[in-house]
Amino acid sequence: MQVNIAESWKHILQPEFEKDYFKSLTQFVKEEYSSHTCYPKGNDIFAAFDFCAFNDVKVVIIGQDPYHGVGQANGLCFSVHDTIAHPPSLINIFKELEQDLNIPYPTSGDLSRWAKQGVLLLNATLTVRAHEAGSHQKKGWEKFTDAVISKISSERENVVFLLWGGYAKKKGAKIDTKKHHVLQSGHPSPLSANRGYWFGNKHFSKTNEFLQNQGLDTITW
Question: Which residues make Cβ contacts (< 8 Å) with residue 4, sequence separation at least 6?
Answer without folding.
Answer: 43, 46
